[in-house]
Amino acid sequence: MLFPLPLRVACSLLAWFSLYAWFCHRYKHRNYEWSCRLVTLTHGILATCLSAYVGFIDGPWPMSHPGSPNTTLQVHVLCLSLGYFLFDLCWCVYFQTEGALMLAHHLVSILGITASLALGESAAEVNAVIFGSEITNPLLQARWFLKEIGCYHSFTGDVVDFFFVVLFTGVRIGVGAWLMYCELASPKPRWYIKLGGVIMYAVSWVFMVSICRFARRKSMKKYHAWRSRRSDELYLKTNGHLKNH
After folding, report:
1. How far apart, in whole angstroms, are the C-alpha atoms of residue 38 and residue 142?
2. pLDDT tens-place string over residues 144-199
């Protein structure tokens, strides 16, 4: 017999908090954000894998069946993610580490998942949104950990940044536009589910603007560094040539 939805969400919240407490105990020499980031990384990997299985294998396909009744597996994934978002929202508010945009992202995610669970429908597209949102999360956390250990300004950091920008642009903006079109074109989903999808896509675009600015700054910095190295090489070659004469 399945437990009531509120109890399952409470168990999920407790599980994420317990994992956070274990990380805090395991990494005593690190700050609290280190442990929270590990929890976020764990959820990102787990949610991406589960939501991908739900969308691509178990079904139904969110692009063709928006507003369809929730399946048992979809409900499990939503409860798991809802517990995480509640934990992370409380952590961010308590430690005041995030701005209004990230808090709004978490609130909309919580409301969207809660509405889908309460209605018993639209989990297909909500799971798809979770997949799109979380697929870039491990790379985002990798950037933070690389900065913390002093390895961000390296080839590894460049690779992580490249794949983060490519995935964000391709999945959250590209595929996200397709999902939003299918959601809005279908008569089945409730209007507030559609509104939530539009808000989430708008938030993605706000993030995208910041990412574009970051990518431009980093590209220009790399370009100027290359120009500087190139000038130094030419200078050394020229001096060497003059000395030989």
Report:
1. 10
2. 999 999 998 889 999 999 999 999 999 999 999 999 999 999 989 998 899 988 99
Residue 44 corresponds to which amino acid? G
Of 19, 11, 12, 15, give the one whose Cα is nearest residue 35: 19
* 244 is a domain residue: no
Q: Is residue 245 part of a domain?
A: no
Question: Which pTM does this prediction carry?
Answer: 0.86
With respect to residue 191, please indicate whether it lies within any of the assigned structural domains: yes
Q: How far apart are CA 173 and CA 11, in angstroms?
A: 33
The first and second tokens of residue 55, run together, are 């969308």
Give yes or no for a cis peptide into 4 (omega within 30° of 0): no
Give the domain range for residue 190: 5-239
The three-state DSSP-derived secondary structure of 45-63 is HHHHHHHHHHHHHHCCCCC
Q: Within the chain, where are the H helices? A: 5-26, 32-53, 72-95, 100-119, 123-134, 137-148, 155-167, 176-185, 191-244
Give the pLDDT band (50/70/90) at residue 237.
Answer: low
Count: domains in the chain: 1
227 is a domain residue? yes
* Nearest Cα to Cα of residue 86 among 119, 117, 62: 117
C-alpha distances out from residue 193 to 10, 42, 116, 132, 180, Å: 23, 27, 8, 17, 11
